[in-house]
Amino acid sequence: MRQLLGKYLLLPVLFFTHLSAHATEGMWLPQLLNRLNEKEMKGMGMKISAADIYSLNKGSLKDAIVSFGGFCTGEIISSQGLLLTNHHCGYDAIQKHSSLQDNYLDNGFWARNKQEELPNPGLTATFIVRIEDITQQALQGVTGSLNERERQSAIDKNLNTIRTNAKKESYQDLVIKPFFDGNQYFLFVTETYKDVRLVGAPPSSIGKFGADTDNWVWPRHTGDFSIFRIYAGKDNLPAEFSKDNVPLKPKHFLPISLDGIASNDFTMVFGFPGRTNEYLPSEAMKLTVEGQDPARVQMRDAALKVIDGFMRKDEQIKIQYAAKYASTANAWKKWIGEMQGVRQTGGIQRKLQQEARFRQLVQANPVYRATYGGLLDSLNNLYKEGAPATIARDYYTELLRSTELLGFANGLISLLQETRLKGEENYAQLRQQFLDKVKPQYQNYNNNVDREVAVALLDIYFKEVPSNKIGGEAYQIWMETNKDGRTTANKMYDQSALTSYDKLEAFLNKPFKSVSEEVWKDPATRLMIGLRNGYIDFINKPYDALQPEINRLQRQYMQAQMDVMKDKRFYPDANSTLRITYGKVNGYNPRDAVTYDISTTLDGVMEKYKPGDYEFDVPEKLRDLYAKKDYGQYGANGKMPVCFIASNHTTGGNSGSPALDAYGNLIGLNFDRTWEGTMSDINYDATICRNIMVDIRYVLFIVDKFAGAKHLIEELKLVHPKKGSVPLKKAS
Ligand code: ARG
Ligand code: ASP
Predict the structure, then answer these.
(1) Which residue, 311, 314, 432, 712, has fewest beta-carbon neighbours within 10 Å?
(2) Cβ(271) to ligand 2 under 6 A?
(3) For 482-513, what is each residue's pLDDT tens digit?
(4) Residue 12's pLDDT band (boundaries 50, 70, 90)?
(5) What are the boundaries of the signal sequence (predicted)?
(6) Residue nearest to atom 5 of ligand 1 (CA)
(7) pTM over cut 0.70
(8) Is the CB of 653 under 6 A from ligand 2?
């Protein structure tokens, strides 16, 4: 008896260690919080209930969160539909309104009144009205005997029925998504507003301060925010843009806390994380960090080096390539961090341990043994088998992405194929569509830059991708040009008809018959045809052949993990649906003897200040405010807070997400993760994974003191929860 008791007494302790190690991992579905998370959240300091976060019957926090344009998150911060998101999320909109005279990227933009707010055709904001578990109906009649294609078509049929029968208003939409690799399905009723206007943005020297050098890095000093407003029809419902539209009256908007953060404060982040892969087997993780990441990084390394060299010497090229450079560098840097983080934390080792435990549990139970016996080995073997094609596929994708001439040639080949398919009489129309698409790309295209990128990338491609995956046609051309990137590139860039928009247009203006004949003589198109044929036959075919089986086994493995590991709480991988993640404001040790603090201040901005530098310049007005310490109600202890970190589990798509305090007040704006923790998409580790947020007080300081947009501050609801004056109040 004593012994037994002793055994049981141990359990809670083990359970606790388990929880504390994983307490901040997870992107949870808001409608399931009361079942899965509420208790833990309260234990960590949350002062509101799950129903205050997600409710169907009353305004709740979820009614203040939107998917911004489908790629970022935004939140509503006033009773007049004012929306806050990141500067890098609003970047395109800001850029489109900018000209040489009114360069809003450089100088910032502030509408002085609602009439000056700028419409952005195509930009949307989507609210989630309700979420329903439709797993049972979606998987009705779906049995293990169906193959993947049959399974999908059975599900599609079920989903159609669900769509037809679902209750929704005419102005609402239905979105259905698979979760847990297709083991569960959820339906989202959404409302998408289509009139979203630009209200304000700081200059890039604040909104993008530190740019690519500081990207993914802590300590950070970026004021990464921009402000929009949602407009609705007179009935407050979604409407196409019209100047008669009125500011949206939201069901809820976020009060803003001026009390700041302290170490160990509870925080949550509410938003639309894009994609994670937390339940892969070890071979898949190995493939990612030892196969795919190195390949992609190698290609981008080479391309970025070339582009950077040109951008530093030539102002025109800098403007043309800035956005491309930033987006290429963003993933490149993340992948480097991911490889390093997985290595540093023994991520693969940890997977192997989890798999050993999984195997043990399966072996110990006859039912599991019968259903899941060989599953893990088969799945691991499939990933291993598919590795060469997967890596070659990455090389191919990167080659086409960075070598724009090949990208144009690829588009041209598709145009010819489509014309053959649809009939020559459609050529004129299809040609015009193609030309319209590439015209803006040519505006930001420079032959000298692209040629040097091609030299570097062709050398890598033909060296790294095995010749039997390249194929005879392309390899033939490679041999004709002495297996040399420079010779191959020179021939293409000296002779191709695709090196400028005008030449391309003239070439395509010939009759379809001549175009399809001459295409073979054009060195760029000829190489591209060879590369493409080789890709289709030797990379994509074997890759595609394995996918259905990988998907099937991955789905079974997901289910098996949930069945077998009863002590573990599972959250679904991110899939651009609304999630909540929670954690604590906390520093960390990136490496031996180094400790990172939780927050930065304007002092750090001034430490980084490099006059005239395109990443680290500081506007004069901000320097003045700093010199006078003129921080108004936003400063704390004589300093101006700028950014802070916490252990919320976030990913791409969470940019612009609100960071909330224990009461659901806005305390910050999520925009990035730390270098050591970018691996969190495949290997979350609470000891070093941190999300980075702008302190909301810095945002307000910039709006109020720097931009003088006091009318915006007056729209907000500012609260002091720590001083005990204002408990959470609903906005409406
Ligand atoms: N790393 C952040 C994210 O993945 C910020 C990217 C924008 N900033 C930049 N310097 N490229 O989106
Ligand atoms: N910067 C990312 C975004 O734009 C966020 C992240 O990956 O942490 O969504």
Answers:
(1) 432
(2) no
(3) 999 999 999 999 999 999 999 999 999 999 99
(4) very low
(5) 1-23
(6) 672
(7) yes
(8) yes
